[in-house]
């Protein structure tokens, strides 16, 4: 059994505002991260029509995360396939980097005889939908692509209460400075 709300304000917070947290909310065009300063617009509620519920207007301040095209973010490499790199932003939001937005010098390295769930698997026999292609990406120096990576947001998609992004790794990597001796020449 649910316990009754102690106050009307706690009821509004629990039933109406808390469910918005960490989800896309169309009226604010973004993901609600937090809220504060919840106040009633009037001292009394109204019964509208034959509704058994009391209606009351409240004001609230939302902290909203609104990723937009062109924004630079950092994500953790959590998935890779020959056609993409997958990133996770703030351990919450998924980003797909399609092959055409991966730097030209990077290459896909296939792992032969990779094990999937303890069984030896042929290359490309990863489980459907898991993103396991049996390999990894390396940069132009042959270093495995892992950990955090900067990316540029290319598209933001909101479906229901979920947000996902497409990104690009092109032009966001730090350029190496030439050694001092080479610059002096």
Automatic annotation (TrEMBL):
- Tell me the InterPro entries matching this sequence: RNA_pol_Rpb7-like_N_sf, RPA43_OB, Rpb7-like
Q: Does the keyword Metal-binding apply?
A: no
Annotated RPA43 OB domain residues: 67-170
Q: What are the GO BP annotations of this UniProt entry?
A: DNA-templated transcription initiation; transcription elongation by RNA polymerase I
Pfam annotation, one family: RPA43_OB
Cellular component (GO) terms are: RNA polymerase I complex
Q: Which domain of life is it from?
A: Eukaryota
Cellular compartments annotated: Nucleus
Q: What does the UniProt keyword field contain?
A: DNA-directed RNA polymerase, Nucleus, Transcription
Q: What does this protein do?
A: DNA-dependent RNA polymerase which catalyzes the transcription of DNA into RNA using the four ribonucleoside triphosphates as substrates.
Q: What is this protein called?
A: DNA-directed RNA polymerase subunit
Q: What is the lineage of its organism?
A: Eukaryota, Fungi, Dikarya, Ascomycota, Pezizomycotina
